[in-house]
């Protein structure tokens, strides 16, 4: 068992079994996870990891945005970082340390209230700091790793390491670094603000609300922008706005969003992703690459 009752007795986090992942994804779809652990803090996370066998599948989840869990669910253990590892603290006059489970929007507002500038763009990222680090998330022209001074990672043995940006190869929505390590925190370098940070955040969010679907479950942008173009423009030009597969639909407001109109399955969404890729490639000769991570098993007897 993972972990045994004796091993779990000393842990301070919450361990659940057979958990519907629809509770933990922004699309509100997904099968059941064998186990879900929400650590109390970094020390508790390290202790929990040490109880696991070395071949235990691990899935790291923040707010569940940019994540599609198939209807057959997940084998192994899901680590839920939001609600446990979400501390934000000021290290010095221009540096903030944020744990991986902190919501990006919360971090944007917190640093603006500190009188610091540079993370306003994060108000438009619908995920956590850990996810933003893992994919170099961006919004409104800003990107996460442009502000990273240092990161902390953890491995399966519960060892925490401090690493420099030079340890990673960072590109557009792409980050490659040491294998077998996961982000648990980052130190971010900022600049003195002018007292108008919260005002700028409100303006950015109003712009987002005017151009993106806000009333239905989605994962944010589904596809990466190809070089020199925009995925949304290509999808719209291919006549795909409003196209449906089951309860999943290409948004009529922003074509790079797929929304759950009610009752969608993960298979519906995955089938629509594939249909958009195939149509855009046939019409434009461009193969769109998803930003969204697709994990888990298809529902038995049903393929996407």
What does this protein look like?
The chain is globular, with a radius of gyration of 20 Å. It is of the alpha+beta class and 304 residues long. The strands form 7 sheets. The chain has a 5-stranded antiparallel beta sheet, with helices on both faces. The chain contains 7 helices and 20 strands. A hairpin with a 4-residue loop joins strand 11 and strand 12 (160-163). The model has no long low-confidence stretch (mean pLDDT 94). The chain has 3 domains: 5-80, 2-Layer Sandwich (Uridine Diphospho-n-acetylenolpyruvylglucosamine Reductase, domain 2); 88-198, 2-Layer Sandwich (Uridine Diphospho-n-acetylenolpyruvylglucosamine Reductase, domain 3); 213-295, Uridine Diphospho-n-acetylenolpyruvylglucosamine Reductase, domain 1. The longest helix is centred in the C-terminal third of the chain and has 19 residues, at 266-284.
Query: What is the number of helices?
Result: 7
* Overall number of strands: 20
Structural class: alpha+beta
Low-confidence stretches: none
Give, in order, the helices and strands.
Answer: HEEHEEEEEHEHEEEEEEEEHHEEEHE
Q: What composes the largest sheet?
A: 5 strands, antiparallel
Seen as an oligomer or otherwise, the chain set is single chain
Question: Which fold name is given in CATH as the topology of the largest domain?
Answer: Uridine Diphospho-n-acetylenolpyruvylglucosamine Reductase, domain 3
Average pLDDT for all residues: 94
Helical residue percent band: 10-25%
The appropriate CATH architecture of the largest domain is 2-Layer Sandwich
Determine the N-to-C terminus distance: 31 Å
Rg (CA only): 20 Å
Shape: globular
């Amino acid at each position: 068992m993972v972990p045994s009752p004796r091993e779990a007795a000393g842990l301070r986090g919450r361990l659940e079994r057979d958990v519907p992942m629809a509770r933990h994804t922004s699309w509100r779809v997904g099968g059941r996870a064998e186990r879900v652990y929400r650590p109390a803090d970094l020390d508790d996370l390290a202790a929990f990891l040490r109880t696991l066998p070395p071949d235990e599948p691990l899935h790291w989840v923040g707010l569940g945005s940019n994540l599609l869990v198939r209807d057959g669910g997940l084998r192994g253990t899901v680590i839920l970082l939001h609600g446990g590892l979400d501390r934000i603290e000021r290290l010095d006059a221009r540096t903030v340390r944020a744990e991986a489970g902190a919501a990006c929007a919360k971090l944007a507002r917190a640093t603006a209230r500190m009188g610091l500038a540079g993370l306003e763009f994060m108000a438009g990222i619908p995920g956590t700091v850990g996810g933003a680090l893992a994919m170099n998330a961006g919004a409104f022209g800003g990107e996460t790793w442009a502000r990273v001074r240092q990161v902390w990672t953890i491995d399966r043995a519960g060892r925490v390491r401090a690493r420099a940006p030079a340890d990673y190869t960072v590109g557009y929505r792409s980050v490659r670094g040491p294998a077998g390590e996961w982000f648990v925190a980052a130190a971010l370098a900022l600049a003195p603000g002018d007292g108008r940070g919260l005002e700028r955040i409100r303006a950015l969010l109003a712009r987002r609300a005017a151009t993106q679907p806000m009333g239905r479950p989605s994962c944010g942008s589904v596809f990466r922008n190809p070089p020199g173009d925009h995925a949304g423009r290509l999808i719209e030009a291919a006549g795909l706005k409003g196209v449906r597969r089951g309860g999943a639909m290409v948004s009529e407001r922003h074509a790079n969003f797929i929304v759950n109109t009610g009752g969608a399955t993960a298979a519906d969404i995955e089938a629509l992703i594939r249909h958009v890729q195939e149509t855009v490639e046939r019409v434009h000769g461009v193969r769109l690459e998803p930003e969204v991570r697709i994990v888990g098993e298809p529902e038995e007897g049903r393929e996407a």
